[in-house]
Amino acid sequence: MLVSNVFSLIGDTPLLEIGIPVPNDSKIFAKLEFLNPGGSVKDRLGMSLIEAAIKRGDIDDKTTIIEPTAGNTGIGVALAAVKYQLTTILVVPEQFSIEKQMLMKALGAKIIHTPHELGMKGAIVKSKELAAEIKNAYVPNQFYNLDNPAAYEKTLGKEILKDLATQKIDAFVAGVGSGGTFVGTVKPLLKQYPKLKTVVVQPEGSILDNKPAHAHKTEGIGVEMVPPFFKDVRIDEIKTISDKDAFSYVALAAKKLGLFIGSSSGAALAASLKLAKTLPRKSNIVTIFPDSSERYLSKGIYKN
Ligand code: PMP
């Protein structure tokens, strides 16, 4: 395959049928989003946030992009900023993985840390402060920007329908950080399959089960507030997965499937297998593997 730039390789990732026994003779299919050039599902978002803003005239070639991010969105935004040669500042709470931060820097972005204890909220506040100080700044703000779910509605959701054109889809399972991946992807699926079971995955310590927030090791998912995008779709079930379960499926995926998946993918796999026990026989479950374990090696992802 001959390509003229790496940006054209974003999206159209493979959908893998998971080759381990699934309860009730069902099947689990996972979109291998770590195969995007920047290594995660958030390449789709980074490119889309920048291109939508350029189209609206919110960005010109002198604009500084400022974004609060746990890391993967930062890499996606920084990758898009390379394409359009834009200055980028990423505001990252300090607990997140060093590999992601190294990759953001390699792409030319500047990183500003906010204190761990202030969480993503602290990064959002700091981004707004910086934007007020810097002339011609643009904060995409993935947590509120409708370009976020729209990116996934246009690409990931439609791709899944195409990938499984010859098979029905009974359930969609995905982790939630901003909620953009879940909400955007599920919309076209619900249009084609109105009875689709929609299942959100969160780590223990995320607030969607109305329990108090606490720290967790599963990275990239978990929320401190209900994502504003949730009001746009029907959510049937919330599956809360412990760090222990998420990391045990990360280990299993490597040993049994030869897959290097991150902990949010491990949680998605754990949740999909749990869900399969409750669905009718021969159900088809679709999920997302957002990134790779390679970005968490320094955090001991295989030592848990
Ligand atoms: N998994 C990983 C590894 C992520 O980085 C993210 C984004 N923070 C997600 C899942 C969740 O994606 P979204 O923000 O679209 O809910």
Descriptive report:
Pathway: Amino-acid biosynthesis; L-cysteine biosynthesis; L-cysteine from L-serine: step 2/2. Its cofactor is pyridoxal 5'-phosphate. Belongs to the cysteine synthase/cystathionine beta-synthase family. InterPro entries: Cys_Synth/Cystath_Beta-Synth, P-phosphate_BS, TrpB-like_PALP, TrpB-like_PALP_sf. This protein is of the alpha/beta class. Helix content is 37%, strand content 17%. It contains eight helices and ten strands. The protein has helices at residues 42-56, 72-84, 98-106, 119-133, 147-163, 180-192, 243-257, 263-278, and strands at 15-17, 27-32, 64-68, 87-93, 110-114, 137-138, 171-175, 197-203, 237-241, 284-289. The protein has a six-stranded mixed β-sheet, sandwiched between helices. Strand 7, helix 6 (180-192) and strand 8 form a beta-alpha-beta unit. The longest helix has 17 residues, at 147-163. It is globular and about 60 Å long. The N and C termini lie far apart (39 Å). 51% of the residues are buried. The model has no long low-confidence stretch (mean pLDDT 96). Bound molecules: 4'-deoxy-4'-aminopyridoxal-5'-phosphate. 4'-deoxy-4'-aminopyridoxal-5'-phosphate binds at residues 40, 42, 70, 72, 175-182, 220-221, 262, 264, 290-291. 4'-deoxy-4'-aminopyridoxal-5'-phosphate (PMP) binds at residues 40, 42, 70, 72, 175-182, 220-221, 262, 264, 290-291.
